[in-house]
Amino acid sequence: MGLLTVGTPLSWEETQRYADHVRYHGIKQLINLYHRLKDRTNDCLYFGDEVEYTLVTFDPEKTKATVTLKAQHYLEEMGKLQAEGKINPDVTFAHEYASYVIEGIPGKPYGALSAHFNTVEEKMAERRRLVHSLLDSSNETILSITVFPRIGCPSFTTPDYPPQPQTSVSRSLFFPDEAINNSHPRFKSLTTNIRQRRGEKVAIHVPIYVDTNTPQPFVEDLPAEGSSAMKPDHIYMDCMGFGMGLSCLQMTFQACNITEARHLYDQLTPITPIVMALSAASPIYRGYLADVDHRWSVIAASVDDRTAEERGLKPLKNNKFVLNKSRYDSIDSYLSPEGRKYNDIRLTCDEDIVKELMENGFDEQLARHFAHLFVRDTISLFKEKVGSYDDTDTDHFENIQSTNWQTMRFKPPPANSSIGWRVEFRPTECQLTDFENAAFTVFVVMLTRVILSYNLNLLIPISKVDENVKRAQKRDAVLTEKFYFRTNVTTSCSPPDASECVKKGQCPGIVVGNTDRKLSSSESCPYAFQELTINEIMNGKEDKFTGLIPFIRDYMDNIEVDVDTRCSVSRYLDFLSKRASGELMTTAKYLREFVRNHPDYKHDSVISEEINYDLLKRCDHISKGLVPCPELLLAKESKSRSDIPKAVLVASTADRKTRKGSRSRSRSRTPSPSKSVV
Question: What distances in angstroms separate CA 74 from CA 5, 71, 81, 101, 244, one per listed residue?
Fold first, then answer.
């Protein structure tokens, strides 16, 4: 969720008055942080994951399932046990926006050994078991679902609280304040301030899935306020809770240094829409089947605090910029030097901030990245933090940095910390089982190793990544959509020369920085990509592209991997390979098909209480391994374990002694892909 600063939240009027103050000092803090840490290097390739769990209560007598508003209660219970030393310190939990969601994270990051890949799933399972052991009733459970199907429907919470649209912080017709985490003032402060800054409630419109008996046009009978905001044939939602009340899986990687972090940030960006489509798990909103499979546009709209002027609906008068996206969306620029020519979207930046950063040692790309983030205002400020120190604090910087929620996040080291330069991968949907969540985590982490070891170049124009993000959210995108993707990714291949296009007058022109120009005949063309299916991207296409999974398998053949880890990773890759090919369903398709085949379903797009109950019961049984699910999962399990085998640790220690002094990890000494892969 971001920075949870302790303090007294200011009103929106007070926060607004400090907007320039926070922006000014946030940049000063960034400059000081950069100068202290820009030369930091030799950090270990640690990684970690975050899984958000939804608390659910089943009422078998009423055949009803609701979200359980007890996250704070269980977190307090875990805090007591932790203080008494009764909880494994490798397991940590944190608050999230919704009072029915708990975030689980490793107590310490996973290390750089390949054997750490084999501990991810078991650590996730350990978190799940711990929460289950604390639940007050046998009718309670936790589910790693992305969206509760009847979120916003009448009586969707336990205890039941009706919404108060005239007095609540969100003014929602559907979502009560009690469903917002009350343990920290940030959550309700954000909810209020986003609405007030925008000048009206947020409006979320999700296309309805049109089944045989769905009314045409689909128009809900809502109070006048809702009727004026809704769109025909769309599911209407009206507050932050419908986005930030959803759950996801995120991964964070520590890089060796700032250069490597910028490189990984860029190279993983074209992967974000691919993983979106593969992990799609949210086809239901507010009790209706939707015609999308992924939450991204929903959560983007839920925190869209842009005014009418910033959305281009009115001429600029009180605001400085027209902003093309919500503060929660896909990134707009690459950061590495090799990524510069692929930045074909004109960035909206505060040019004064660009100038200040460049005068203080930032290169133009990095300066524009942060100046682009800082066109946003602070939307939550605490009285005690107004006077933060520029030399030692980073609160004002993080205030804006952490409320730009994007597909990727470039994360400078925290002040006064041993943590290094990091990159966060943010688009993945929660999966039902620990096996699936571990598979996605290990896949993305291993891909970072392959990118660095083989020096892959996955970059395509950033505008095409944006198009891929739109395609990835569509229903059954994993099977029905094609995605722009680079096929000549190895260093042995370079993009086609621009000379032929230039001779034929076909060069479309590019935007470098914020300047339009044509390519010269001596330049390599950045528009070197094709449209491929997810199956072709993941598993390869003969004579066109090797495939991401074959690259990872080849990498495993080039490094030392213990037997159990190789077995587990192979299972994860098999699972993702079959999901990419369509042999296994995405979670979204499984949920949709369950609904459509339910005896209570009227083919009218409506998720009744009974359908919701049975659907979540099935999800609970799947997550606990109580029922087989061959449409969704492999029959064979992994060999995940919670620790690193002693023999592996001994061998690793001996290897480190042999290689002492060579920590720089020069890419010339890393594995090269085998000839079969190239």
Answer: 21, 5, 11, 10, 20
The model's pLDDT over 543-599, given as tens digits with 9 standing for 90+, comes to: 889 999 999 999 999 998 999 999 999 999 999 999 999 999 999 999 999 999 999
How many whole angstroms separate alpha carbon 515 and alpha carbon 513? 6
Domain assignment present for 402: no
For residue range 239-257, what is the model confidence (pLDDT) as tens digits? 999 999 999 999 999 999 9
For the residues of 485-540, what is the DSSP string, one character each? E-S--STT--PPBTHHHHHTT----EEETTEEEPPPTTSBPS---EEEEHHHHHH-
Token pair 């239901």: residue: 284
Distance CA 423, CA 312 (A): 32
Q: Which two tokens stand for residue 424?
A: 């966060």
Spatial distance between the Cα atoms of 52 and 96, rounded to a whole number of angstroms: 8
The pLDDT of residue 576 is 98
Backbone φ/ψ region at 508: left (φ over 0), alpha (ψ -120 to 50), beta: alpha
Most distant CA pair in the chain, distance: 75
- Asked if the model's pLDDT at residue 505 lies above 50, the reply is no
CB-based burial label for 308 (10 Å; 0-12, 13-18, 19+): middle
- What is the Cα–Cα distance from 380 to 393, expressed in whole angstroms? 17
Over range 87-101, report the average pLDDT: 93
Residues 6+ apart with CB under 8 A from 401: 26, 373
b/e sequence 632-650, b meaning 16+ C-beta within 10 Å: bbbeeebbbbeebeeebee
Round to whole Å and give the CA distance between 397 and 386: 12
Q: Would the pTM count as exceeding 0.85?
A: yes
**For the chain, what is the domain count?**
1
Instruction: Name residues whose C-beta falls within 8 Å of residue 335's C-beta, 6 or more positions apart in sequence.
Output: 262, 265, 266, 365, 366, 369, 410
The tokens for 643 are 């620790």
Give the contacts of 606 (CB within 8 A, at least 6 positions apart). 287, 288, 289
Q: What are phi and psi of 206, to 5 degrees?
A: -115, 125
Cα–Cα distance, 430 to 437 (Å, whole number): 7
SS3 category, 18: coil
Cβ atoms of 15 and 378 within 8 Å: the answer is: yes
Query: Please, are residues 537 and 471 in contact by the beta-carbon 8 Å criterion?
Result: no
**How do beta strands 64-68 and 47-59 pair?**
antiparallel
Dihedral pair phi/psi, residue 50, rounded to 5°: -135, 120
Residue 464 belongs to a domain: no
The answer to whether position 154 is within a domain reads no
Distances, alpha carbon 134 to alpha carbons 10, 87, 102, 228, 432, in Å: 36, 12, 13, 45, 20
User: Is 510 inside any structural domain?
Assistant: yes
Q: Which residues pair with 485 in a beta bridge?
A: 530
**Residue 428: enclosing H or E segment and its boundaries?**
none
Burial class from Cβ neighbours inside 10 Å (0-12, 13-18, 19+) for residue 272 reads: buried
Residue numbers of the domain that contains 518: 488-528
Total number of residues shown for the chain: 678
